[in-house]
Specification:
6-stranded mixed sheet, Rossmann fold, Cytochrome Bc1 Complex, Chain D, domain 2, alpha/beta, 5-stranded parallel sheet, globular, 3 domains, disordered N terminus
Length: 540
């Protein structure tokens, strides 16, 4: 009996994993044709436009125009029609009566000759492809299930989300994150209950029959928030994330918080194709590429590229020295600055520090008084900056000192008068004086829900992520395709009027970092950080 029970448990776990996997194995040939422009043989897909232009490989992939969801989009003034199975192969009474439903024969004709089932020529943007009958069958099988299969984390009455909390996060920051998400979910579910009551009243008034507005009301689901708390070193996180996901699949991850390494969370989302929206994390220069994960910025790596542009524009001459921790984050930021300066004909000297080693006053004395750098760049956090002599007399040979706002809060520096004309902050955030009016909306929202303002950056980040998810889902009707959700997020980020500490957020297809630039700000004579102007925004 125990053996039988164990086999049943193992089978159940396997079925859950199969259900949670992004695509079935038998769908892979069609997926590679559609997404990657690659045939099962390993050869590139080839197509030709009406004007004779040849396409091959990724440029010929269906997803390039019809998007990964298959739900289409736009190419300038042209509309790219959806080609998911429930629309392409459905009888005309349920879709577009101007053409019959596609079958394998008419699909083959459309792909090879550019002619629809009615014999009309397709748009000039539609290529004619070199595909065999078997390959068209594989593509058709993939289209049949595209954006139409059930999505993990979504039921007829609920939609599940999670937020990830990494270890060693300050308790106040964790509370800041959760207070916003919990209040947002409570408000969302309050509105959902009201719409559900309206639906039931309409049913009763209609004798229990489904009304014409039933489809609209179906889109109201209760939002469930799950807190995924990680423990131990990053190497232990993948197993914990997998366990959370098996126990309760989620549609997407909203916000989240962590200090340092985020790679295991990123890899988990990419592996399972789970959208992850705008966590509050410090990359420390470790930018991550992917499909499912969205981030506010590339952290210190972006600031390094902005700084290189600023130094060239300022007519930099003389020695440039950068100090950084010899760990993954420090090396990445330093490498970004080094590469960006080399492209502009400038060199930089490195002063790496052992990871975890003490930074004493003696080190700074040797560097400032003996090496005499003209320009000094510090990729260091506040603990590392504690021994830096900002409250002492500035060395006469040092002309400029640059610090990353991703690593140090500028208001904590408190430079002495002699440093005010030397110290500069590379900061992606909008200056507080201009940010305040936009933050007013969120602060009113917090007060109405009795949520204290604990951390403006973290709370505005969480509010942005949750609100953007709600807006994206509202435009998706009943199609809970993760691919479509990701495409909606790409489209709506720039249009959002929601508050954020970042002055400009935008995403294009395939872009995953919404902030593209930064300011380089100095200090005013009264010791306060000078307010950067909009024209000071630098994009590398």
């Amino acid at each position: 009996m125990p053996t039988t029970i164990n086999r049943c448990v193992a089978l159940a776990a396997l079925l859950v994993l199969v259900w949670l996997s992004p695509v079935r194995a038998d769908m892979l040939p069609g997926q590679h044709i559609y997404r990657d422009g690659m045939l099962p043989s390993g050869q590139p897909l080839r197509g030709q436009l009406r004007n004779g232009a040849l396409l091959s490989g990724p440029t010929a992939a269906c997803a390039r125009c019809h998007r990964r969801s298959g739900l289409g989009g736009g190419e300038g003034p042209n509309t790219v029609r959806p080609i998911t199975g429930d629309l392409l192969f459905t009888p005309p009474a349920a879709t577009d009566a101007s053409r019959p439903a596609y079958d394998l024969d008419t699909l083959a004709r459309a792909l090879r000759e550019g002619v629809d089932p009615n014999g009309r020529r397709l748009d000039a943007l539609m290529p004619r492809f070199e595909l065999s009958d078997a390959q068209i069958g594989q593509l058709a099988a993939y289209l049949q299930q595209l954006s139409s299969t059930s999505t993990p984390g979504v039921s007829g009455s609920e939609i599940h989300f999670a937020t990830v909390i990494a270890p060693n996060v300050d308790a106040r920051q964790e509370q800041a994150l959760l207070s916003v998400l919990q209040a947002f979910f409570a408000g969302k579910n309050g509105a959902t209950r009201q719409e559900q009551r309206r639906r039931e009243i309409g049913r009763r008034q209609n004798g229990g029959n489904v009304t014409g507005n039933e489809k609209m009301y179906l889109s109201y689901r209760t939002w469930q928030l799950h807190e995924w708390r990680l423990k131990g070193p990053p190497a232990a996180w993948p197993a914990q994330l997998d366990k959370y996901y098996r126990e309760q699949p989620v549609f997407a991850l909203l916000s989240g918080i962590g200090n340092g390494d985020w790679q295991p969370v990123h890899a988990f989302c990419e592996r399972n194709e789970i959208p992850c929206l705008f966590p509050s994390i410090d990359f420390s220069g470790q930018a991550l590429d992917g499909y499912a994960s969205f981030y506010f910025s590339r952290g210190a790596q972006l600031e390094a590229e902005v700084l290189a542009k600023h130094l060239v524009a300022a007519g930099q001459s003389g020695d440039i020295v950068q100090v950084f921790r010899d760990d993954a984050g420090g090396r990445a930021a330093a490498q970004s600055l080094r590469s960006a300066l080399q492209q502009r004909g400038l060199a930089v000297a490195d002063r790496p520090l052992a990871a975890g080693g003490d930074l004493s006053a003696a080190f700074w004395s040797r560097l400032l008084d003996a090496a005499h750098p003209q320009t000094l760049v510090l990729w260091l956090n506040e603990a590392d900056m504690a021994a830096f002599p900002l409250q002492q007399k500035a060395p006469p040979g040092l002309a400029r000192l640059y610090v990353s706002a991703s690593l140090v809060q500028p208001e904590h520096l408190q430079p002495a008068d002699g440093w005010l004309d030397k110290l500069h902050i590379v900061d992606q955030s909008e200056p507080a004086t201009r940010r305040s009016p936009r933050m007013a909306r969120m602060k009113v929202w917090l007060r109405m829900r009795n949520v204290p303002l604990l951390d403006e950056r973290i709370q505005s980040n969480a509010f942005f992520a949750a609100s953007l998810a709600g807006d994206a889902l509202a435009h998706m009707d009943e199609n809970y395709s993760r691919d479509y959700f990701i495409e909606r997020v790409e489209h709506m980020t720039e249009q959002s009027l929601l508050p954020s500490v970042y002055p400009r957020l935008s995403l294009g297809p395939g872009q995953r970092f919404a902030s593209k630039g930064a300011y380089v700000s100095g200090y005013a004579a009264n010791g306060t950080l000078a307010t950067a102007q909009p024209q000071d925004w630098l994009v590398p």
